[in-house]
Amino acid sequence: MSSLNKFEYFTDIETAFVRRRGKHLLIGPVDWALIESWKKRGIPLRTVLSAIDEVFDGILKKGGDTRDVGSLKYCETAVERRFSQYSKASVGKHADSESAPLEESHDDFSERAIEMAEQLGLVLADLPEGIRLSIENCRNELLSEKAPDAEFFDRLDSEIDASILAPGAVEDADLIELAASEAAKFGSMENDGKGIYERFLLKAYREKHAIPTLSVYQL
pTM for this one? Predict the structure, then answer.
């Protein structure tokens, strides 16, 4: 799975955790490794975010101080419990299917490819040439691929991200300033300043231009 495609999954989890904790302090390498393990296992983003809310809501209900939570590992048990519930529910839903409970069928992926191609077609008009060409290429692949799978969508998402992060591709000064401002809230960013800025720029640019997330790993 490409490192570019991890941005939204990682950033959304990090942002939610920092927001609920109440400290603008970046999470550490151990927590990043934990997020990496969740993503590799296919734990949905919404499952992790719900678990984070559950943990911090519980702390507040008991009158505790959320700022005392120093690591995302504090939420690990809640994430595992919610993912277990999600997995069991998926098993029940697909009890009569021969496929793995958390995998989509070929037909599901084919339908998704058509749907994503339609959505990408709607956003092309106002994009600069480099990004537009990348999205057009992805759209053509979505329409021509005979056997799409999860990695196929993941790769296309990475190609779109790469085109947005290409030198000079984004000329919107307001978006660039917004991404820099949001990234700066997380401290000095000595270790991963560029990566943090890029994650916020990708998020802001995709939201402004309604560029959909293709990857099934972030549903």
Answer: 0.60
